[in-house]
Amino acid sequence: VSGILASDSLPGAVPSGKLFLGAADFDPEGQAFLSPYATIHVPTQAGLEVQLTALESLPLSYWTGSSWTSAGFTAAVVTNPQYPLRKAVSAVASVAHVYAVFLNDADSDGIRDERDNCPLATNAGQQNADHDAFGDPCDPCTDTDGDGYGNPGFAANTCALDNCPLISNVA
Fold first, then answer.
1. pLDDT digits (tens, 9 = 90+) for 11-53
2. CB within 8 A of 34, min separation 6: which ones?
3. What is the pTM of this model?
């Protein structure tokens, strides 16, 4: 078993719109495990662990020799059995493969879509000046004083501009 934490060590490219979380190579490739099958642990990149929730169910993929395909089952986020301060993704598998976990990341900013405050526009820092549900690059009205008028300087604003963005001054 070999853990893989660098995408350039994978046998194939990370699928488009996906974020690589971690992988493991179980040898010999294609070997069937006898019942009760094998519990596999896929290591996770330390920098992405804050985006995971304990026991969260994540889709598992495996390398077919030419492409990544769904393993047909999910894996749970658990404590890494070899490194207890780290996380891993665990599942029961019946066949040895290179297994990987890819998270949705449509804008390729390193924040998975389920946690991204602006999933269709790159916003790795998750900037959100007015602390609403929308990240600044896709917020239709960045309004820090809450008066319904948008602060100047935010390209995504579609609302009327605020003449005094630090003080609410609704007429």
1. 999 999 999 999 999 999 999 999 999 999 999 999 999 999 9
2. none
3. 0.85
Q: SS3 for the chain, per residue? A: CEEECCHHHCCCCCCCCEEEEEEEECCCCCCECCCCCEEEEEECCHHHHHHCCCCCEEEEEEECCCCEEEEEEEEEEEECCCCCCCEEEEEEECECCEEEEEEECCCCCCCCHHHCCCCCCCCCCCCCCCCCCCCHHHCCCCCCCCCCCECCCCCCCCCCECCCCCCCCCC
Predicted local distance difference test score (pLDDT) of residue 49:
97
